[in-house]
Amino acid sequence: MEKIQIAEQNQKKWDSRAKTYDAKRFDYFRFMQKRLISLLDLREGTHLLDLGCGTGWAVRYAAAKANQQGEFDGVDISAKMIEIARANSTGCRNVHFFQTGAERLPFNNNYFDCVICSNSFHHYFSPAKVLKEVKRVLKPNGKIYILDLTCDRRLPKMLNRRCQRREPAHVSFYSTDEYRSLFSSEGLNYVGGKIIAGRLIGFPMKVHIGLKNGK
Ligand SMILES: C[S@@+](CC[C@H](N)C(=O)[O-])C[C@H]1O[C@@H](n2cnc3c(N)ncnc32)[C@H](O)[C@@H]1O
């Protein structure tokens, strides 16, 4: 499938799910986002970006953890998700949402201390392009945290192939080695990985952490 078609499929799919997303996915997705955010060094003044932010819950949660001091932004390809994220965030002064694909980020160079991405990276038709953009917008010593199902074993690999056959908006889940090499091709150092859920059932949800070296 062409890249442009994958982007359109994602827009359509997530626009149609936006209204009911929080009601349907709340517990599991929030549990994972909380665990992801617990890995961050969030302080007052932090600049954080969430890629594929959906309804923006993690952005608001991170802003609250940093006492609303700093800048907390989210991007999503779905206009409806962004509409809801904005509606849910009235009164949050330091929280902003932008409708755009993660392949093209409307931010200055060296702006964010950290970039997070939860349960969204497998939809990106050009992961290399996304990581190039992430490297550009991260400050030196800034970090990217990608949470997604990780395919180091047979079961999740089988699921990945099945999703690729059946689900037009799915691009790929990756293995730890693939993350390592994707990061390094774009000049990010793979500095760690942590399974935060799903290990026992054989479908590990793992956070992959990349560092932009300081200069
Ligand atoms: C499963 S939802 C995850 C939402 C949120 N991160 C969470 O954990 O609840 C996947 C999100 O990725 C977004 N998405 C898919 N492809 C995208 C792309 N190329 N750029 C930005 N967002 C994208 C979808 O619109 C959707 O909101």
Task: Give a topology summary.
Blueprint: H1 3-38, E1 46-51, H2 57-65, E2 70-76, H3 79-87, E3 95-99, E4 112-118, H4 127-137, E5 138-149, H5 154-166, H6 176-185, E6 188-197, E7 205-212
Helix pairs in contact: 1-2, 1-3
Bound molecules: S-adenosylmethionine.
Radius of gyration: 16 Å
In the predicted model, the low-confidence regions spanning at least 5 consecutive residues are none
Order of helices and strands: HEHEHEEHEHHEE
Main sheet makeup: 7 strands, mixed
What is the domain tally? 1
User: What ions, cofactors and ligands are bound?
Assistant: S-adenosylmethionine
Q: What's the architecture, going by CATH?
A: 3-Layer(aba) Sandwich
- Provide the CATH top-level class: Alpha Beta
Strand order in space, largest sheet: 3-2-1-4-5-7-6
The helix-and-strand class reads alpha/beta
| Termini Cα gap | 39 Å
Number of continuous helical runs: 6
Round the mean pLDDT to the nearest integer and report it: 95
CATH fold call: Rossmann fold
How many E-type strands? 7
- Level of helix content? 40-55%
Large-scale geometry: globular
Beta percentage is: 25-35%
Which homologous superfamily in CATH is the superfamily?
Vaccinia Virus protein VP39
